[in-house]
Design goal:
The structure holds two protein chains of two kinds. Chain A is mainly alpha-helical. Chain A contains eleven helices and two strands. The chains are: A mainly alpha, B alpha/beta.
Chain lengths: 296, 236
């Protein structure tokens, strides 16, 4: 069974699955890198994105691309509203020592959003079989069209985010604020707006992943828990606050999952991944791609 | 353009006042130096002027406008450049990206941006050769040069420098103070705080000696020059 095609197949499957973990984790790392908040409600932003995707594509009947754009855009607005109404006032009130409070706050947001979804949509699952049925054969590899779509969407999303952060004034200002907030403010950068926009972008990424993965994870109130856990693993292994680390570690995690499921059996992937997290925490606590130096 | 600090009382939250009625007058186009021992309140004074600390009492004005309690992100718009104590580069951004952010207040004016970037590279050729290098990989001296060029990009009319020579090799300290003199020549008012009292006394027009949160001495810098060693021994 250990033939090259099988290994290749597992690798491709893993990368596809992991690309979405990476995109999810990128939002989490992005928010942490700039706002220093661990967003426990990130899975619920994913859940909202999934609902938006379902209602836009299945409910209204708009095309898949429209569903993704509308999901990302509406979650951006949800993120902006959450930051402005809850996170920003808390930070202003508590000053520097607000990390734990921010953490507790996002746990509260998580519970509230889950219950809002439960009241609004009930516990039933809103899912789709797939947006692009069929499969492609590429050099002996069989890849479901849905997977190709996911892979392409991940690549495009990463590329847009990367270009935004490196080529635009706003992107550079966000990275500068993550590096040294006070120094950025002195140059005239309004840190408060940067925080709000950053949280919005992080939320939009979570919503986008929720939309893209609707065929795998149907929308229901607590669907975000599993993917949040995966995103945390990526962030810990890749290095907290490192966006590029999250982008690279996601696919790596997906491949490890695919291999451990294939060679051991279903369920073993969680053990292997927990062992990986523990090893990284003990041997390289800053993560595979994190910086060891402390920030100024 | 003159800057006036009048009877400032300020300190950190929960603590007692570090500054106890400090006043400073900086005439336009001059270098004003503040020297004093560790803990005298030099950095606290600059943080208060630049809006990182709120004064409990007192007024700060620049060019006739009240700027007391100004938010730090409004400094640039008021024409004030501030070199913070310690490191203020963005280590994960390239040298060029760091410089560009110094022009944040006029970022959409691409012609001016191009012009000021070129001028900065002329003044500091070492930055020109390292445009694409991550600023965190520069040496301590190069980082300081980058910080000073970044704050000069927007042509500030008031430049506030907190310990510009801290941690630099003696040769570089001289370069930094030469650059401070250039800022005055270009018309800026400079307020500088530094541990290197002799260097400050050598370039400043007017000098203040701060001790335990109060101004102990003040006067034209030349009146201090022959007795600076005595002052350093007594107060620093």
């Amino acid at each position: 069974m250990l033939t090259i095609p099988v290994l290749l197949q597992l690798t491709v499957d893993g990368i596809t699955r992991g690309a979405m973990y990476g995109l999810m984790a990128t939002g989490l790392a992005f928010i942490f890198g700039v706002l220093r908040i661990i967003n426990m409600a990130h899975g619920e932003l994913f859940m909202l994105g999934a609902y938006v995707m379902y209602f836009v594509t299945v409910g209204v009947g708009l095309p898949v691309a429209a569903g993704m754009i509308i999901a990302a855009a509406s979650l951006f607005l949800v993120g902006v509203a959450l930051e402005r109404s809850l996170i920003s006032p808390l930070r202003t009130r508590l000053g520097d020592n607000w990390l734990i409070d921010g953490y507790v706050l996002t746990i509260g947001v998580m519970v509230v959003l889950q219950n809002i979804a439960l009241i609004a949509f009930g516990a039933r699952e809103y899912g789709v079989a797939g947006f692009w049925p069929g499969r492609q054969e590429i050099g002996g590899l069989v890849i479901a069209n849905e997977r190709l779509l996911i892979l392409a969407e991940a690549a495009v999303s990463f590329a847009i985010l990367g270009l935004f952060l490196s080529k635009t004034d706003l992107g550079r200002a966000i990275r500068a604020t993550a590096d040294n907030t006070d120094a950025a403010r002195v140059l005239g950068i309004d840190a408060r707006s940067i925080y709000t926009i950053t949280f919005g972008i992080g939320a939009a990424l979570a919503g986008l992943v929720g939309a893209i993965l609707l065929s795998t994870y149907p929308a229901y109130p607590t669907v975000g828990g599993d993917i949040l856990l995966k995103a945390f693993v990526v962030v810990i292994v890749g290095g907290l606050g490192s966006i590029w680390g999250a982008m690279l570690t996601g696919p790596l995690l997906g491949v490890i999952e695919a291999f451990s499921t294939a060679f051991a059996s279903g369920g073993w992937q969680n053990t292997v991944i927990s062992a990986l997290v523990l090893s990284v925490l003990v041997l390289r606590p800053q993560g595979l791609f994190g910086r060891q130096v402390t920030r100024p | 353009m003159d800057m006036r600090v009048t009877n400032i009382w300020a300190g950190y939250s929960g603590g007692t006042d570090v500054l106890k009625g400090v006043s400073i007058n900086a005439r336009g186009g001059t270098i004003v130096g503040v020297i004093g021992a560790n803990g005298a309140g030099k950095s606290t004074l600059l943080k208060t002027i630049c809006g990182f600390l709120k004064p409990r009492e007192g007024d700060i004005s620049f060019d006739g406008r009240a700027v007391t309690g100004l938010k730090p992100d409004r400094l640039a718009a008021e024409g004030i450049g501030y070199l913070m104590e310690g490191h203020s580069i963005f280590p994960s951004l390239s040298v060029e990206e760091n410089l560009r952010l110094g022009a944040w207040s006029f970022r959409s004016d691409s012609a001016r941006l191009k012009r000021v970037l070129e001028r900065a590279y002329e003044r500091a050729p070492i930055l020109n050769t390292k445009r694409k290098v991550k600023a965190g990989l520069l040496s301590g001296g190069q980082q300081r040069i980058l910080e000073i060029e970044r704050l000069s990009l927007a042509d500030p009319s008031l430049v506030i420098l907190d310990e510009p020579s801290l941690g630099l090799a003696p040769k570089l300290v001289q370069d930094v103070f030469d650059r401070v003199c250039e800022l005055r020549r270009s018309g800026a008012t400079v307020l500088v705080v530094d541990q290197g009292a002799r260097h400050v006394a050598a370039v400043a027009d007017y000098l203040y000696v701060l001790r335990l949160g109060q101004m102990e001495l003040q006067g034209p810098a030349e009146s201090f020059r022959d007795r600076i060693d005595g002052i350093v021994r007594e107060f620093i």
